[in-house]
Automatic annotation (TrEMBL):
Keyword Hydrolase belongs to the record: yes
Gene name tied to this protein: egtC
Reactions catalysed, as given in the entry: gamma-L-glutamyl-hercynylcysteine S-oxide + H2O = S-(hercyn-2-yl)-L-cysteine S-oxide + L-glutamate
Organism: Rhodococcus chondri
PROSITE patterns in the cross-refs: GATASE_TYPE_2 (PS51278)
Protein's name in the database: Gamma-glutamyl-hercynylcysteine sulfoxide hydrolase
Length: 249
């Protein structure tokens, strides 16, 4: 499906994060190592979010492949941040390829990305979407499963901690669409939360840096693969991986 990465650590340029390592995100855009179905390349747009030390987060999104967008070299190379999220899109068949469909989706200091799909969307999510106020549904950025999941998760984040919000959303979606693939990535500039549900997910965490990524971009021995159906909470000096226990139907 897609590739995404969350980074917390020393201030680094976004272009460096895109190009770092022999299996960099840039290379993963056209030669991913572990897609597990749903496409072979990630050429249907991309997005970047960065958190400044003060003020609102910044965001850039494009419908172009990351290797074809001149702003990567001309603009992103001069942006340095201690917190970054990058998402490369491989669109599900039938969903639009447009700038507004590219993650990360944002609200306040939150940013969200999906690597996966919701089976039988949009019908499978009708009952969950019906629980949202009409005003929120009208804020849907693009007619995609990822944008819909973000509306649902954003609503839950107002009343629950990130771990609880993600766990409850996975439970509810899997109950309605059991074959969904739900690798979700969430960041607020201070922590990274992610789910591994079908697709690959890896972490690299020490006292200075925390990276959560669809796949490793180099051969660093600190990379750890997240087991399937697990929830990740990561920040420099802290890594918690717990099972995503979904009740049997």
């Amino acid at each position: 499906m897609c590739r995404h990465l969350g980074y917390l650590g020393p201030a680094t340029s976004i272009t460096t994060l895109l190009n770092d390592g022999p299996r960099s995100l840039m290379k993963q855009s056209w030669a991913p190592a572990d897609m597990r179905g749903g496409g072979t390349i990630n050429a249907d747009g991309f997005g970047v979010v960065w958190w400044p030390d003060e003020g609102q987060l910044g965001r850039y999104r494009s419908a172009s492949p990351v290797w074809a967008d001149p702003f990567v070299a001309e603009g992103l190379s001069v942006i340095n941040s201690r917190a970054v999220m990058i998402a490369l899109r491989s669109a599900t068949v039938g969903m639009p390829v447009e700038r507004s469909a590219a993650a990360p989706f944002t609200d306040g200091r939150w940013a969200f990305s999906l690597n996966g799909l919701v089976r039988d969307w949009p019908g499978s999510l009708v009952s969950l979407a019906a629980q949202l106020p009409v005003a929120e549904l009208l804020q849907l950025e693009s007619p995609t499963d990822a944008a819909t999941l973000w509306l649902l998760l954003r609503s839950r984040l107002r009343a629950a901690e990130p771990e609880v919000a993600l766990l409850s959303l996975v439970h509810d979606v899997i109950a309605l669409a059991p074959d969904s693939r739900l690798n979700m990535l969430l960041c607020d500039g201070g922590g990274i939360w992610a789910t591994a549900w079908y697709h690959s997910l890896w972490t690299l965490v020490d006292e200075n840096v925390a990276v959560v990524s669809s796949e490793p971009y180099d051969d660093d021995e600190r990379w750890q693969q997240v087991p399937d159906r697990h929830l990740v909470c990561a920040m420099p000096g802290k890594l918690i991986v717990t099972p995503l226990e979904v009740p049997a139907s």
